[in-house]
Amino acid sequence: MPVTGLSPAAIALNRFGLGAKPSDAAPTDPKRWLTGQFDRFDTRPADFAALPDAGAMVKAYREQQQAMRQAARLAAPQAPDMPSAKPTRSADQIAARQDFAQDVQALYRQAIQARTQSALQTAAPFVERMVHFWSNHFCISADNPQTSAFAGAFERDAIRPHVLGRFEDMLLAVEHHPAMLIYLNQIQSIGPNSLAAQRAARRDPGKARGLNENLGREIMELHTLGVRSGYTQTDVTEFARALTGWSVGAQGPQDDGNAGDFAFRPNLHEPGPRTILGKVYTQAGEDQAKAVLADFARAPATATHIATKLARHFAGDNPPPPLVQRLAVSFSRNKGDLPALYRTLIDSPEPWAPAPLKFKTPWEWTISVLRGLGRTEIGQIQMAGVQSQLGQPVWKPGSPAGWDDVAASWAAPDALLRRVEFAQRLVAPLGDTLDARTIGPRLVPASLSAATTEQIGRAESPGSALALLLVSPDFLRR
Fold this sequence. Notes:
The chain has helices at residues 8-16, 30-35, 46-49, 54-75, 91-121, 125-137, 145-159, 167-176, 178-183, 195-203, 214-223, 233-243, 286-298, 300-315, 321-333, 338-347, 362-372, 383-389, 413-427, 436-443, 450-458, 462-470, 473-476, and strands at residues 246-248, 262-264, 274-276, 279-281. The chain is mainly α. The strands form 2 sheets. Strands 1-2 form a two-stranded antiparallel sheet. Strands 3-4 form a two-stranded antiparallel ribbon. Helix 4 (54-75) packs antiparallel against helix 7. Residues 250-270 are annotated as: Disordered. It comes from Sphingomonas oryzagri. This is DUF1800 domain-containing protein.
């Protein structure tokens, strides 16, 4: 019988899941197979749980640097009539900084290995895909040592525990996390009329200190309401004022907890009520921004924003309006309950269209390749390096908007060539241990095209056949 498109089983395994394994049996009831994963998801896999404490690492480094600066000041006091010299780092401080950077990079790479391991071993590949989706939606970019240190902990502690919970709870966990607070400079934000700002002005009237709007702006633009949803610059500024005081423990001279924990600093908080999107928030301290976040999480604009991104991820670069509308209604009606939203997605016809709808990103393609080759252990493959070579370094999108979710960003000829080269390197050691003619129909059940079947049938060697399968249109798309 000629193949006419993707079968429901192939769609469940590849479009909703992370790619089939040769040992997988094609699901006989694809929708039930997907929803059944809600009970099998491992929130805290062993490799993630084993990651070192990033907060303790950062705190120890800060304390070490402070001790060195203090020792340097005591050893070389300034003469009374000499102007203050610009502080320079000692050789010990520079060496400690390099050691810290190396430790952070090791932790970053270990976290990526843990993420990969979870994707290879999971019994809930659809839910694991949703972890990756939300991690990109609420992205941080690990472009400095401190954010890099917290990158793995961010996904483990702020995303994974809430992927089957409520959007509002995930939102709060994300905005409380040190990775986000450091990445978007929230720890530098000071209320213009706060106690800290008044004291600083008395000490040094000429030095400007004040509000940082980065976190507030990105929450409204990217995490919740979406661009052009009706908010103004005044709303952004007011929300940034409400957020003042949200910080991370053990920042600066005060020892108020672990550097991996959220800390609220009342002295930095802008006093008084805030008016945002026409509503007055009279709460005091930390509760003020929490109340705003709760309203953002329930706003109709947020429902549409989330629905659009979810529809784009599963139903094509141009998300079908009826699907967007259905998802938005589900999101609002169920108060951001994410399993209910996923069920609406699974029950909708658009994501089950038999034609391939999405071009796989480098991460999606690599995971599906490794799963397709039957790997359950990442072994010696260093995924941080592989993803950098393929153009999508993990947790480093370089922008708070995250990685693009459209084909044009990933389907350039040079990017495809890098995938071909990686596939060839990966299959070379396998020799004739895997037969592409056998596993191809298992990876895309009842859906392998005649062209791909012919290509792998004509290949010069088993390795060539396998590489051809992995870079075929059937495998590059989902």
